[in-house]
Amino acid sequence: MSQSESIQDTLPAWMPALQKQGGPRFLQVADALQQAVESGALKSGDRLPPQRWLAAKLQVDLTTITRAYDEARRRHLLEGRGARGTYVAAPKAELTPVLDLSMNTPPPPAGVDADALLKQGLAQVLMGADNTLLMNYHLAGGSDADREAAARWLAPAFGRLDKQQLVVCPGAQAAIAALILTLTKPGDVILAESLCYPGLHTAARQLGRHVLAVGTDEHGMLPELLEQACQQYHAPLLYLNPTLQNPTALTMPEVRRSAIATVIQQYRLRVIEDDPYWLLAETAPPPFATLVPEQVAYISTLSKCLMPGLRVAFVLIRDANQREHFLSALRSFALMTAPVMAALTTQWIQDGSAQQILKGVRKEARLRHNMASNILAGHDAGCHDALHIWLTLPAYWEAAQLARAAAAEGIFVTPAEDFRTGDSEVNAIRLSLGSTKERQHLQTGLQKLSRLLASPPDHIKKNI
């Protein structure tokens, strides 16, 4: 359709046919509008077709188009001009003062009405449960229904699981701290990769343990260096984040996992396998908890693959005695998962909503990753399944220096030193792609970063 004041009889070029399996129809229309604006097919000031006309052409209810236009307005794509109609709005992303790319969170799920699923899920929880119980104390570890849901959620990685071996926790950070208390004593050494999740350092430091680095290559931790560390430090505990690793976004291949598992068995190491991204990966090797099951405590949090606000993580511990010690440690600082959130998580897993959200998160993450790869062309953007990018910097930028320059532009990123365990000299930053709702806002921020990366900082320019 021409973007003139007249309306032709054909559908506008930016509006593809609606797909039966493409998710809610109003979101398909809103997504088509967003893609048209991002590609330039629709420009600021272009007039949109009347809602009744578009509803008739798409053979949908008027309320579907009304909801689509409302959603597009929520995304700052459209604006109403009274009797003159609806028009493409001027970009709003530049007016947003801060873009936080420092926190790893899943993006809004593509093609999913998350608000509707939240309302529906909570309504079902309230209808099906004793509301008094939902607002009362519960024993740590989760109900039978919660553990059954956990077993179902982990089935793609493990197949059939005994629900009694699973514990429901208030987030992965609480699980890591409780496992450190369970598996080590003050002064002990915890082995980890040279770049790893900062939350491990925080918990270990607060609990009086020491995290020491084991060297890596492009496939992850090196088995020969792990063996040397075991001989030198007699460490009781190893921390691994083997799939879409934070921060490098690398996935340890199956051959390397087998070699590491051999060392774990030989030195009787206990292992925390922190695996929040396994379900996001298109093809992930089997977890360590399938290779050395009795020595590995496996953590899978839903905060990184569904929604952070759920604050629910599942922990697989096969040894009954160790599981009881873990629950005792957990109760010392986190009595229970919030019952409403645990019940909502269980409801969503049982009715398929969680799988629907996961699929949408995976789709949106890949869309954002592809966009970032195009904008940051010439820089390694890493695996497209990850929620983040590990960006190696040109020699004229230091990570901390670039982080400060980006913050001056209203963009927060995380420099390599925040993840450093040993003396790693990697010069890189992590960019988290999911924290902003609007893809256009992310696009604007990445374009600013690209301009920063392309030019040396001022003090270097003066010496050129």
Descriptive keywords:
Aspartate Aminotransferase, domain 2, globular, Arc Repressor Mutant, subunit A, alpha/beta, disordered N terminus, Aspartate Aminotransferase, domain 1, seven-stranded mixed beta sheet, 464 residues, three-stranded antiparallel beta sheet
What does this 3D model show about the protein?
This protein is an alpha/beta fold. It has 3 domains: 1-90, Orthogonal Bundle (Arc Repressor Mutant, subunit A); 99-113 and 354-456, Alpha-Beta Complex (Aspartate Aminotransferase, domain 1); 132-351, Type I PLP-dependent aspartate aminotransferase-like (Major domain) (Aspartate Aminotransferase, domain 2), CATH 3.40.640. The protein contains 17 helices and 16 strands. It has helices at 25-39, 51-58, 62-74, 114-128, 131-134, 144-158, 172-183, 198-206, 223-233, 254-266, 288-291, 320-331, 339-351, 353-375, 399-408, 439-454, 458-461; strands at 78-80, 86-88, 99-100, 166-169, 189-193, 210-214, 216-217, 220-221, 237-240, 270-274, 296-301, 313-316, 388-392, 411-412, 414-415, 428-432. The longest helix has 23 residues, at 353-375. It starts with 24 loop residues before the first helix and ends with a helix. Mean pLDDT is 91; it is low at 1-7. This is PLP-dependent aminotransferase family protein.
